[in-house]
Every structure is written in C-alpha cells, then in structure tokens.
Amino acid sequence: MRFPIKSVGAVALICFFLGFCLQAQAQKNLSKLLDELQKPETSGQAAQQLRTLAKSRLPVRRYLASHLGSIIDATPPSGPIPPVPWVNAVELAVEFKVAEATPALAKQIQYNTNAGSLSEPGIAGYPAAEALAKIGDASIPALQKLLQTGTELERTNAVYVLLTIDSARAVAILRQTASENSDPGGWPGAPRNRSVSCL
Fold first, then answer.
1. Which end of the chain lies in a sparser environment, N or C, as judged by fewer CB atoms within 10 Å?
2. What's CA 99's distance to the chain center, in Å?
3. What is the span of the domain harbouring residue 75?
C-alpha cells in the first residue's frame, strides 16, 4: 500500500511538531524542578526527581551540568549547617560527576562545618572540599587555579583534596607544585610539604 507523498510529508511535519512540543514541555518541567531545588521546603523532593531522571536520560544530565554551578554559587553556606538546597545541589554534582560545578565548589573550599577539627589534617568538615575530592579528576583544573591564586587555607585544602583524589594526574600536580615551591614559605604549610615528599 502506497501513501501519497503529501501525506508522508504531513506525517513527518506532525511528528516533528510533536517532538518539538514534547522537548519544550520537558525543558519546562526541568526548569520547574530546578526552581524547586532552590527552595528549602521542596528541595529534597525535587532533588530526588532530578536524580531519577538524570540516571536514565543524558539530556537531563547535561541540563544539570549547565545549571548546578549557579545554584551552588547562589546559596553559599555559612554556619555549622549548610542550606538544604546547597546540600542537594552539591550531592547531585557529586553523584553525576559534574565538572561544570567544580569552579563554584572551589570558591567555597574553605567553608567548614566544624565537624572536623581545624587543627587536624585533611578535609573532614569541609563539605565543598569533600565534594571536589569525590568528583575526582574533573576537579583538578579548579584546584590548580586555587593552588596558584588562593588564600593559604584554600591552597591547603586544595592540596588535601588532591591527596584524597590520589590519581596519577593529581599526584603529578602535587609534585609539580611542590617543586615550584621549594621554599617552605611559599607552600601552604609544612604538613603538606611532608605529604607530597612521600609521593
């Protein structure tokens, strides 16, 4: 059975239009979920829905990648308990290894919840630093920038994040940084010097 060319063209046009409408609706739904992610009262449920969608749909993961950094930036944490929207956004960034969120996390690498002692080595109690470590090698460009331009605490935490990542690339960056800062005064703390010398 043959269909007239005009009919085939009309069907193709209808399919295209329906696909466009469905895509627009999906975009609208994602935008709504991101809005809800930023509200404390709806953040948890929105995060769960986004997590479920992102596990099975690449476009959702791409959408998250392009927006999570700005959400993390928009809700900077302070005090011992970080904001719920910030926590949920960071958890999504970690789960899906969102490299685009690492510059925003790097800006907050010095934030401490006091869960870990400030005198103890490591990144316990620094949730942004812990998130960067879990994201892994994708965090390295943001960490390199901190090593070059950050405060002493930011550089110190960047070193500990790289030590935690402990990949070949992270170790190479640590060795390079140590060789460029042979003067102890130029390195973020003696403990870091000893850690890198053992690599």
1. N
2. 6
3. 26-96
Write a three-state SS string for the chain.
CCCCHHHHHHHHHHHHHHHHHHHHHHHHHHHHHHHHHCCCCCHHHHHHHHHHHHHHCHHHHHHHHHHHHHHHHHCCCCCCCCCHHHHHHHHHHHHCCCHHHHHHHHHCCCCCCCCCCCCCCCCCCCHHHHHHHHHHHHHHHHHHHHHHHCCHHHHHHHHHHHHHHCCHHHHHHHHHHHHHCCCHHHCCCHHHHHHHHCC
| Residue listed under structure tokens 């892994």 | 136
Q: For residue range 38-65, what is the model confidence (pLDDT) as tens digits?
A: 999 999 999 999 999 999 888 999 999 9
The answer to the question of residue 130 being in a domain is: yes
> CB neighbours (10 Å) of residue 24?
10
pTM for the structure as a whole? 0.79
Of 57, 70, 66, 69, nearest in space to 23 by CA? 57
More confident site: 110 or 76? 110
Q: pLDDT for 127-146, tens place per residue?
A: 999 999 999 999 999 999 99
Closest CA to 47 of 59, 39, 37, 61: 37
